[in-house]
Amino acid sequence: MWKQSTVSASVVALCLTGCATAPQTRAEERSLEEQASTTLDTMMARDPRLSELVDSSVGYAVFPEIGKGGALVGGAFGRGVVYEQGKPVGYVKLSQASIGAQLGGQTFAELIIFRDGNALTRLKTDNFDVGANVSAVALTSGAAAAAQFEGGVAVFVMPRGGLMVDVSVSGQKIEYEPQG
Predict the structure, then answer these.
(1) CA proximity to 129, closest of 90, 165, 173
(2) What is the model's pTM?
(3) Is the pLDDT score of 165 beyond 70?
(4) What is the share, in percent, of the chain residues with pLDDT greater than 70?
(5) More confident residue, 66 or 22
(6) Highest averaged pLDDT of the listed ranges 50-64, 92-106, 113-127
(7) Residue 125: helix, strand or coil by DSSP?
(8) End-to-end Cα, the chain, rounded Å
(9) Exposed, middle or buried, 13 (CB in 10 Å: 0-12/13-18/19+)?
(10) Which helix (H) or strand (E) holds 45?
């Protein structure tokens, strides 16, 4: 059992680190940007007050689809687009590896809102991670009103499919690459 868990953890770690942050072609960039725009529109339709938070923010990152799965050892991966003052400025890659009580798989969209310049600068200059003090808010009508900014960041998730016992966002590592 221990050997199987170690092998699983190694495979998850390799998968999470081996993918490029930005799309490789202009067509892939356009596709990701279209998916991010559609996802943001869907999120705002679910909670119209979300647009107030987005419009008043310095920037935000939209991950149209994050896949997450695990059986004791787990991981998550997704790509997204970073917007500053409503315009795309770069791409992000989210990865997460975990060991512990978890079972199943799920896909979800994620929106990270940066309330101030310091939070957005951290994303652009470092490998940003979502710490243990940040909680995700499940996107439903009225969710924006309950948003809690921690370190200038608020996180919203919108389930897409699947079932998983673990729905945490802490420990997510996010890498940024400017548009080029």
Answers:
(1) 173
(2) 0.81
(3) no
(4) 76
(5) 66
(6) 50-64
(7) helix
(8) 45
(9) middle
(10) helix 26-46
Residue 57, SS3 per DSSP: coil
How many other β-carbons are positioned within 10 Å of the β-carbon of residue 155? Answer: 21
Query: Residue 109's closest CA among 157, 67, 173, 59?
Result: 157
Distances (CA, A) of 150 to 7, 25, 46, 147: 35, 35, 23, 10
User: What would the pLDDT profile of 67-118 be if each residue is shown by its tens digit?
Assistant: 877 776 778 889 999 999 999 999 999 888 766 666 677 888 999 999 999 9
Name 168's Cβ contacts closer than 8 Å, sequence gap at least 6.
98, 136
150 Cβ contact partners less than 8 Å away, ≥ 6 residues apart: 131, 133, 134, 135
Q: How far apart are CA 18 and CA 14, in angstroms?
A: 6
Distance CA 60, CA 76 (A): 20
User: Is pLDDT of 33 > 90?
Assistant: yes
d(CA 14, CA 40): 30
